[in-house]
Amino acid sequence: MLEKALWIRNPYDIGTVSPEFRKKISLRTRVKKATLLASAMGAYNIYVNGKKVGNSVLTPGFTSFDNRVLYAEYDVTDLLTEKTVLSILCGDGWARHNFGFTKRIFTSHVSAIAALMIEYENGETDVIYTDETWEVYTSHILFSALYHGETVDKTVEIKLIGNAQADDSPHPALHKQTTFVTEQERIAVKEIIRTPKGELVLDFGQNIAGYVEVKVCGNRGKQIVLSHAEVLDKDGNFYTENMRSARNLCTYVLSGTEDVFKPTFSFQGFRYVRIDECPENITSESFTAVVIHTDMKRIGSFVCGNADLNKLYSNIIWGQKGNFVDIPTDCPQRDERLGWTGDAQVFCRTAAMNFDVEAFFDKWLTDMALEQREDGAIYRFVPFVGWWNGNISSGWSDAAVICPWEVYNAYGNKEFLRKYYPMMKKWVDYVHSAGEEEFLWLGDNHYGDWLALDAGEGKYLGATQRDLIAGAYFYYSASLLAKAEEALGIDNSKTLLLAKNVKNAFREAFMKDGMPVIYPKHDGLSTSRPVKAVTQTSLSLILHFGLFEENEREALTDALCDLIRQSGGAMTTGFLGTPYILHALSDNGRINEAYDLLLRKQAPSWLFSVTKGATTIWEHWDGIKEDGSFWSADMNSFNHYAYGCVFDWMFANVGGIKVLDGGAGYERISICPKPDPRLGFAECGIKTRRGDLYVKWSIEENATRYELDIPCGTKAFLSLPGGKTAELSHGKYIFIE
Ligand code: BGC
């Protein structure tokens, strides 16, 4: 239906004011059905007779605008009246946003498109398209920008400024929108704080992505000005430096009657809101924090007898909510909010346990596939907003294989895997051809073990050789590709051979006598940071990806435990070592050491942030240090989900649930819970597509009691620590050992 509609734009200079396109229509007779399709290069809200259509926000979302933009379909049958006004209010959204780093803007101007199909009861039809008969009005939104917030003035007069202009500049293909960001939760003010500097600050008690809704009645022309922050500094003052250039500032000018304000085309990442200006009579009840994220079904649950771990779990969930705002973002607050592929791949398995994320990843991976270069390269963030310090990195771009695989493994949808198989294969082919060595990936500018602590204070790159990491990921991606081929019934002999060659080359270059060594070229010599061979990350990758020979297992595991001991019982891993370190320990007989790391409270650790009052996952282990000072203002988000990937270990070890090879979608699983007295009890559950799966255990006086619930069509191989084994199918079970 949209083929006949024109893209329209506002040709008049109205500065940063949001334009509203309007069309008056008259109905011929009684309506049987009315369907509205709409999209914008920018963001839009569409209204019928002043009533917002649909419940999504920031529509049509963030896609690879060079390739596609999404349109949504709405049923508006009940909204039409004899004389109907259709209106489309537009903001810059993502398409006309000034992104961090690159300052790439996809379109120089906002444009909109819509079609309304009316079927009358008498069988006649009308179709109304956007065209030059639509009028352009100004609006109350004087300014809006994703990073910077919004200015709304209810005192300005809304004016008709003329007719819309057909926009004949090239537009991307229109694809149907399948996922929507919506308002999900509302949070009341928890506390009002007067900071040492005298600032008036609202604490909502939870770091979120969303915005504040203000209900107020005050003198016409009075202003409310709100600033947003994630944390207070060590003196208790409002801290916004870590937002970098993102202003996150909302300014509302009151109409004089009852007003409800909230941003329309921006969102903020915050827990605290500073009231920079407001009318005198305002109370805390006037403010509500509104949580937004993509609409996804919650499927996972976890609770245990350790309050700190429960809080960590809650923080992981909130990290996902805060960063699954249309695309998987690194963070929702500073001048970034990009679809960093590395962050998404390390968190993907956890994400798929917490919520049903198939549609969410389907949307994002579609853009990834569209942006995949001819030679198979995948950029570091998707949608790609332009060049910044190199484009491709191992462990980041490997998301092209890891994410489709993890989503398939979680839900068992072969069509999903089939859809992304060409992208997965092309990516592995790209790595195969990258660099001068066929089976290694040498010399590129990778992020390596980003933010690891083993290269010393204040360094971004960890000490592990980046070429070693690139080789390890090459092997991992090739191995997953071979598994995908097996699942799809594709001959995988070539990929298996490739993986074998990569493993041999890796061992030849990076290992000697069963231990990692420095590869005397490239990265080993070329950076100013200290580069080490035997690190927690190199050992974790070798152990977890299976780059060792059986007779080396023990010594590698011992070396990992030694390194942990040498760093005072702490991990020093960054983005690429952290997802695997606990697996590397527990899969090799060191479950206690894994629990020790998980339950450690001193910095650096997962629970350190919990003891510091975190309500989400931090970007850095030491985002806030022991003495309360900050890591740096430059790169210090308090809502970065990546380290929340630890939940996939908790699920597989505390709960003991693992999807077995060839058992995607929980068709074949192992259940091997590993109770630890420090937890007392644990309950781990997931609503699989086959039904509910639960594992509960509690340590009682002389025994441990296990309760299981296995869904229909799942085959579970049980193995309990006391020696009990069983093959279980649908049903509820109790075991005592
Ligand atoms: C982001 C990360 C990302 C990284 C790449 C940062 O600015 O916030 O999470 O993966 O850059 O190293």
Provide keyphrases for this structure.
737 residues; alpha+beta; seven-stranded mixed sheet; globular; binds beta-D-glucopyranose
Task: Report what the structure shows.
- The chain has 737 residues and is an alpha+beta fold.
- Helix content is 24%, strand content 28%.
- The chain has 14 helices and 38 strands.
- Strands 11, 12, 16, 17, 18, 19, 22, 23, 24 and 25 form a ten-stranded mixed sheet that branches. Strands 1, 3, 6, 8, 9, 14 and 15 form a seven-stranded mixed sheet that branches.
- The protein is globular.
- It starts with 7 loop residues before the first strand and ends with a strand.
- The mean pLDDT is 95.
Question: Could you give the count of β-strands?
Answer: 38
> What is the radius of gyration?
27 Å
Portion of residues in helices?
A: 10-25%
Bound molecules: beta-D-glucopyranose
The DSSP helix count reads 14
Average pLDDT? 95
Q: Tell me, briefly, the overall form.
A: globular
Uncertain residue ranges: none
Q: Major sheet: size, sense and barrel closure?
A: 10 strands, mixed
The proportion of residues in beta strands is 25-35%
Alpha-carbon distance between the two ends: 64 Å
Secondary-structure class: alpha+beta
Summarize the structure.
With 737 residues, the protein is of the alpha+beta class.
Topology diagram in text:
Blueprint lengths: L7 E2 L10 E7 L4 E11 L1 E6 L2 E2 L15 E8 L7 E9 L19 E10 L4 E5 L5 E3 L3 E5 L3 E5 L6 E4 L1 E2 L6 E4 L4 E8 L2 E4 L5 E18 L5 E7 L1 E2 L5 E2 L9 E5 L4 E4 L6 E10 L9 E8 L5 E5 L2 H17 E2 L1 E2 L12 H14 L3 H14 L27 H13 L2 H20 L32 H23 L4 H18 E2 L2 E2 L6 H4 L9 H10 L7 H14 L11 H9 L4 H9 L6 H6 L34 H9 L2 E3 L8 E4 L9 E8 L2 E9 L4 E7 L4 E5 L5 E4 L2 E6 L1
Parallel strand pairs: 6-15, 12-22, 32-36
Antiparallel strand pairs: 1-8, 1-14, 2-7, 2-10, 3-6, 3-8, 4-5, 4-7, 8-9, 10-13, 11-12, 16-25, 17-18, 18-23, 18-24, 18-25, 19-22, 19-24, 20-21, 26-33, 27-28, 29-30, 31-32, 33-34, 34-35, 35-38, 36-37
Helix pairs in contact: 2-4, 2-14, 3-4, 4-5, 5-6, 6-7, 6-9, 9-10, 9-11, 11-12, 11-14
Bound molecules: beta-D-glucopyranose.
